[in-house]
Amino acid sequence: MSRQAVFDHLARLLRPYAQHHIIKADTPTHLYLEEHVSSAKPQMFAAAQEKASYVSFHLFPVYTKPALLDELSPELRARMQGKSCFNFKSVEQIPTEELKTLLAAAHESLSG
């Protein structure tokens, strides 16, 4: 499975949020959404980016609101690097439904 397939899968999860956020990058290997709701200065909401041997998925609200991670499965926690980044090498490693739920909760947390 190619990194491109992993990126495409993660980008499909992010695309519904593009209508609510500022698109800072949208290339075949990098999708970056910035939010402007939670602070006066725009900051990252989420991003997917193809790297040399994996695809990174950043979800910044989990850094500012770590309680969003309370229900994280061990499988997704194992993919976590740092406080708000997850790395995937294959589509099979991506818990799609869990990421959808986490993205929705992160988006909701911006207004609360």
Structure at a glance:
This protein has 4 helices and 6 strands. It is of the alpha+beta class and 112 residues long.
3D architecture notes:
With 112 residues, this protein is α+β, with helices and mostly antiparallel strands. The protein has one domain (3-109). Strand 1 and strand 2 form a beta hairpin. Helix content is 31%, strand content 28%. Strands 1-2-3-4-6-5 form a six-stranded antiparallel sheet.
Going across the biggest sheet, name each strand in turn.
1-2-3-4-6-5
Strand content is: 25-35%
Low-pLDDT stretches are none
**Integer count of domains:** 1
Largest sheet: 6 strands, antiparallel
Keywords:
112 residues; alpha+beta; 6-stranded antiparallel β-sheet; 6 strands; 28% strand; globular
Describe the protein's topology.
Blueprint: H1 3-14, E1 22-27, E2 30-35, E3 43-50, E4 55-59, H2 61-64, H3 74-78, E5 80-81, E6 85-88, H4 96-109
Antiparallel strand pairs: 1-2, 2-3, 3-4, 4-6, 5-6
